[in-house]
Design a protein that fits this description.
With 266 residues, the chain is mostly helical. 52% of the residues lie in helices and 8% in strands. Strands 1-4 form a two-stranded antiparallel ribbon. The chain has a two-stranded antiparallel ribbon with strand order 2-3. It has a two-stranded antiparallel sheet with strand order 5-6. This is MYND-type domain-containing protein.
Length: 266
């Protein structure tokens, strides 16, 4: 039986030779080998800027190919690998991956879910699906909030904590960019438009990729705006008024405070 770390090393050799598709496939095989036949918590001695868990090391390399955003690795070009990553999205059930047992196993599973959401978000953004990108980032941030070492880059972080904390910070920055773009675009179109996630606006959007600049004819809003006058919050997962389905609120408090005015619109 070929061990996962051996497959990973073979992948690294292919990568050094510039044979990235072959390296990518070996990374995928290594992940499957460890998940099916090995201890997911096995570790190796590495510098503190890298995870120690072999599975996390291979996982990060696999995801780096998807995150390269050059169009070479996508759901369409590599469906098996994409399905593997998608199975670790934050919304997936922990029962789907029973290999992760005990506190350290659950910690590693959270790390893999967070980094999977990062890659899925970047892939979605690359396809112009800003709403799904924002959703994936928020799902990852919600998981990171349950494990403080993942939630912020702080002095002294090492190995897996350090790796995931940097991923989380980058996702937080990406989500903030999506929110700011929504806020600016909604302000430009005016007239109460651009306040609901997935709302389509008659406004052009320029997307800059690694190899091309794409001009979309419409703009799809990625986040909700809180419907209470005076609240400037935007985000993902806001609750909508159960009566009209057209107004979102960032919190129960905002909805209650706005109810006297909002009920007149029903």
């Amino acid at each position: 039986m070929v061990r996962g770390f051996t497959l990973y090393n073979e992948g690294q050799q292919k990568y050094q030779l510039g044979r990235l598709p072959e390296a990518f496939e070996l990374y995928r095989q290594a992940v499957l080998q460890i998940l099916k036949n090995e201890d997911v918590l096995q570790k190796v001695n590495v510098p503190e800027q890298h995870p120690q868990e072999v599975l996390a090391i291979v996982w990060q390399n696999l995801l780096a190919c998807f995150k390269s955003n050059d169009g070479a690795f996508t759901q369409e070009t590599h469906p098996e690998a994409y399905d593997l990553v998608y199975s670790f999205r934050p919304a997936s059930s922990a029962k789907a991956h029973p290999q992760f047992k005990g506190p350290q196993g659950r910690r590693l599973l959270k790390a893999m879910q967070i980094s999977a959401a990062f890659a899925l978000g970047i892939l979605a953004w690359g396809k112009g699906d800003r709403a799904t990108a924002a959703k994936r980032y928020q799902e990852a941030l919600d998981i990171a909030a349950t494990h403080p070492p993942f939630n912020a880059v702080t002095p002294g972080l090492k190995h897996l904590d350090r790796t995931i904390a940097h991923d989380v910070q980058e996702m937080r920055d990406n989500l903030a960019m999506l929110i700011q773009n929504d806020r600016v675009t909604a302000g430009i179109v005016g007239s109460g438009q651009g306040v609901l996630r997935k709302e389509v606006l008659d406004a052009p959007l320029t997307r800059v990729g690694d190899n091309a600049i794409t001009q979309d004819k419409t703009y799809v809003v990625a986040t909700d705006a809180c419907g209470r006058v005076g609240c400037s919050k935007r985000g993902v997962g806001f609750k909508r008024c159960s009566a009209c389905k057209k107004t979102a609120y960032c919190s129960v408090e905002c909805q209650k405070e706005d109810w006297k005015k909002h009920k007149l619109t029903h």
